[in-house]
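hi got a favour to ask and not much time before my train. below you get a single protein, a line of residues and a line of whole numbers that encode the local backbone shape. could you go over both lines and see whether the tokens make sense for that sequence. a few lines back from you is plenty, here it is:
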Amino acid sequence: MRALKVAIATVGRFHVLDLARELDRLGHEVSFWCAMTTGQTSRYGLPSRAHRGLLPWLLPMVAAQRYGGNRLAAASSRMLLAATDGLIARRLGPCDVFIGMSGLSVESARKARAAYGAKVFIERGSRHIRSQKRILDDLRSSLAADTVPDSDVVRELAGYALADRVVVPSAHAKQSFVDEGFPDSQLFCNPYGVDLTLFLPTPAPLERPPTILFVGAWSYRKGVDLLVDAWRRLEGVQLMHVGRVGDAVLPNEPGFRHVEPVAQHLLANYYAQAHVFVLASREEGLSLVQAQALACGVPVVCTDRTGGEDLQRQLDDPSWVTVVPSGDAGALAHGIRAMLAVAMKQRGQRDLLGLGRTRFSWSAYGERYALELERVVGGGT
């Protein structure tokens, strides 16, 4: 495989920092454009030679997004995307491949193609923007849920139109693009990896009552209202949440425990306390926390719009993941009850990945990606 010049455009870390590290490891010449410091990216293993920092120019908008309150944060986020895109477009050097986050990469993607003949890969972590907006708009009609602004739709569609490949992490996300008329031949499905050094098999929590865990934003998009409905149907089961509180209200009753967001390296401590991990999302591409739970030996119950099916296909024993229809609290409760009956019998170190553990690694993810890059740049279809 020949070395390629690869430019990656993002604001924050996301999964593309892991991608950048893995492509660098494989010998490609990577330029990682971001609003992060070298110290921040190096903590995740990215060599300083690959870092292209934009933070000095973007700092006021980054600060407003993080500390300015909900309304200012939303406006600053849109300004930040446009400003980052423009900065990268002006500073971008020769590249064979341009990989840009969707919603961000428009001017920069055009520059890469027009100036350098680069192939354009657009990273979309969720369903097609129109599909996502319909789902969230329907939800907003009955609940006070967040949705997708029209301006976001415009930027997303502009990025898709420039792409030689739109990269998605799951089969259901890919199907949403096909349903919108996007050519199947221009879609690349590559499930995310997980840091297997942080998420190791954990001992079964024998001294705890039946415990289910959810990690992520407490929001309607994540289906937390359905999760609580399902949990209330399960007698004697505890529900633990780790993450920020979004647009939904936390339950206030015995058996529920909320933990504010923790650093990634501490998450394994919470997986170790759970018998089953549950994700009731109404839509998201592929939630990384599911792979983290499996790597820690915790069985997963999830909806068909979480990417859980893609992880299930990678397991030697797919029964450790139960997939139920999204929006159905009864089916979710049934799935949790059945999985708890099995999970409560686990003893000793819980290792669900077994000999297939490396399939879940970021290195395997990067190798799959590199093969696709070579195929596209080499003139494949």
About this structure: The domain at 202-359 is CATH 3.40.50.2000 (Rossmann fold).
